[in-house]
Design a protein that fits this description.
The complex is a heterodimer of chains A (about 200) and B (about 350).
Chain A: H1 15-23, H2 27-48, H3 52-68, H4 79-102, H5 119-122, H6 130-142, H7 145-156, H8 161-168, H9 172-201
Chain B: H1 9-13, H2 16-22, H3 32-39, H4 44-56, H5 67-80, H6 94-109, E1 112-114, E2 117-119, E3 132-137, E4 143-146, E5 152-155, E6 159-164, E7 172-183, E8 192-196, E9 199-203, E10 207-212, E11 218-225, E12 228-233, E13 242-248, E14 252-257, E15 262-267, E16 284-289, H7 290-301, E17 305-307, H8 309-312, E18 316-320, H9 326-337, E19 340-344, E20 347-351
Parallel strand pairs in B: 7-8, 17-20
Antiparallel strand pairs in B: 1-2, 3-6, 4-5, 5-7, 6-7, 7-10, 8-9, 9-12, 10-11, 11-14, 12-13, 14-15, 16-18, 19-20
Classes of the chains: A mainly alpha (about 200), B alpha+beta (about 350).
Chain lengths: ~200, ~350
């Protein structure tokens, strides 16, 4: 049996080694970590706060800080999850501070989560399918930002619920529920889409 | 193994193996899901719903950062953390720091990831996998198939392609015996390596042909489109250190003489058109200057042609060269001008007495 048959198989089987090497001050491990995670952290950051320079600085500071503190860092299960979590915390904290200074900025209570899902490419936008498309779009827009973020982390970044919980500061059960509720709330519009997809893919 | 028939569509849509299938990331010969689908016809709507969840909930990527910005960002982090042990103020030793940072950056860029290992570009990467996938073509016809990264392979008769089961995850490395035509999907982060004995071919995304039959005295790599790097590796060295490398452009070919262990650059046997602006009808010449004819040939085939301008600049050509191959065209031109040509280092050199 191939390892890929195990569904939640550790995509991160080499994470432990990478993290240990990084903690030991291995520059190659550090630069590898940058190659792997710098671009996706920028992408994730942009969904939390749409200001390129701000996000770039946040990711920059995160890595520089990690390097300086590397000897005091604990072990992590998932490097990606840990980095997402740290970046999210820093961005929210920092954006709150900025908005407090500037008074006027968008961040009112918490943060926003900006994500557009891939409906267009799935549904061929012919006339008779526009309605389903619109109804799905409306349902997706009605999701809360936390639901959108959880869906993004689960479905686009393929993170485990434990990691999603850690990143969003909630427990495992709440992470599962968040995704489940989101899916349930848009399920209504799925029904018409399933019929359509059955037609397309059969 | 998980009993997939117990999963509902939501659980199925979050199963990594199922997701790989839907997103087209499984190797072609992995037909588990096709079989499963057939064996469980009552699951049709569950599969359809799960599939639509996977596809629809892919976030549309922002294209906020260019690769230059990303590279600059990584460099500035590397630079800033370079001298952590010594608290040197930023403004000191700036030159030295940038120099080291540049070196680091270069090393970092050519780093190759596999199971926790980082490899330099001068070394051929290898997979640590134990499970090898083998495509073998025993017949007399070519066979085609796709790899999990989307690259298309056309395998020649009596040829074999091998790769680890981690292909496409961290690396793209294949081993070829015999002949193969590769149409490689572009992925700048993970170069595609073809290993054929002592010759290694590295590309980002392009199409090319590799001929490495064991019975032949040479190994050849011919480029169809894009840019290809061919490296020669030294078997004596334990670290597979690469000795020399040459870069090939379309219509160029690298030939490695196995016995003499010599690698040289020449042209493919039948150069093809690489420029779609030049038409065949452009090759009807009436008292055309030799310089103009050469420029036409150069752009049409993307090959550099040099000739002795001092002696030959006055020469003119009147000929219809629409249907001939490159070498036939050259033969005719040479006949008209009483000239000769030779192929050196992937270029054509024309010489003649002048007119």
């Amino acid at each position: 049996m191939k390892s890929s048959h195990i569904p939640s198989a550790n995509l991160y089987s080499c994470d432990y080694d990478l993290w240990q090497a990084f903690k030991a001050g291995d520059r190659e491990a550090f630069s590898l970590m940058l190659q792997l995670y710098y671009p996706i952290l920028l992408k994730y950051g942009m969904r939390l706060y749409r200001d390129k320079e701000f996000v770039k600085d946040s990711v920059h500071d995160l890595f520089v800080e990690l390097w300086h503190r590397r000897e005091n860092l604990g072990d992590v299960v998932s490097v990606k999850g840990y980095l997402f979590q740290s970046l999210r915390r820093n961005i929210i904290r920092e954006s709150r501070r900025i908005s407090w200074f500037r008074e006027a900025d968008i961040i009112s209570d918490d943060y926003d989560f900006d994500v557009a899902f891939n409906i267009e490419s799935v549904l061929i936008a012919e006339e008779d399918q526009k309605d389903q498309h619109r109804s799905l779009q409306i349902h997706l827009n009605q999701l809360t930002k936390r639901q959108r973020e959880a869906l993004f982390l689960r479905y686009t970044e393929e993170l485990a619920y434990e990691e999603i919980g850690d990143i969003m500061g909630i427990n495992y059960r709440s992470a599962v529920n968040l995704v489940h509720e989101a899916i349930k709330s848009i399920r209504k519009s799925w029904i018409s889409i399933i019929l359509l997809l059955l037609y397309i893919f059969s | 193994m998980i009993n997939y028939s117990l999963l509902d569509s939501e659980a199925l849509s979050q199963d990594l193996y199922f997701r790989k299938w839907v997103l087209g990331k499984l190797p072609d010969d992995d037909i588990f899901w096709e079989n499963w689908q057939k064996a469980n016809p009552e699951k049709e709507s569950t599969i359809a719903l799960a599939r639509s969840l996977v596809l629809t909930l892919q976030a549309i990527p922002h294209s906020d950062f260019s690769s230059t910005e990303i590279n600059d960002g990584i460099r500035s982090i590397i630079e800033e953390t370079e001298f952590v042990s010594k608290p040197i103020p930023l403004w000191r030793s700036g030159m030295f720091r940038s120099l080291v940072a540049c070196l680091f950056l270069m090393a970092a860029f050519f780093c190759f990831l596999r199971k926790g290992n980082v490899l330099d570009s001068r070394y051929v990467p290898s997979t640590s996998t134990q499970n090898w996938m083998v495509h073998r073509n025993e017949g007399d016809q070519t066979i085609s198939f796709n790899l999990s990264d989307g690259s298309k392979i056309t395998l020649g008769p009596h040829s074999e392609l091998q790769y680890g089961d981690d292909f496409g995850l961290h690396n793209r490395i294949v081993t070829l015996i015999g002949e193969g035509f590769f149409e490689v999907e572009k992925d700048a982060k993970r170069p595609f390596w073809v290993i054929t004995g002592k010759l290694v071919t590295k590309v980002i995304g392009t199409s090319f042909r590799v001929k490495a039959y064991e019975r032949d005295t040479t190994i050849s790599v011919s480029v169809h489109t894009g840019k290809v790097t061919v490296l020669r590796q030294n078997a004596e060295s334990s670290k597979d250190h690469l000795l020399s490398e040459i870069v090939l452009l379309p219509n160029q070919k690298a030939v490695f003489d196995k016995e003499k262990e010599r690698l040289y650059k020449t042209l493919v046997d039948t150069p093809i058109r690489v420029d779609d602006k030049t038409e065949n009808s452009d090759f009807v010449f009436e008292a055309a200057k030799i310089g103009d004819v050469i420029v036409k040939l150069e752009t049409y085939y993307g090959i550099e042609i040099t000739f002795d301008k001092d002696t030959m600049f006055k020469c003119t050509i009147t000929a219809d060269l629409q249907s001939e191959s490159l070498y036939e065209k050259l033969d005719l031109i040479c006949e008209i001008l009483q000239a000769t040509y030779k192929i050196t280092d992937g270029q054509i050199v024309l010489s003649g007495p002048g007119c």
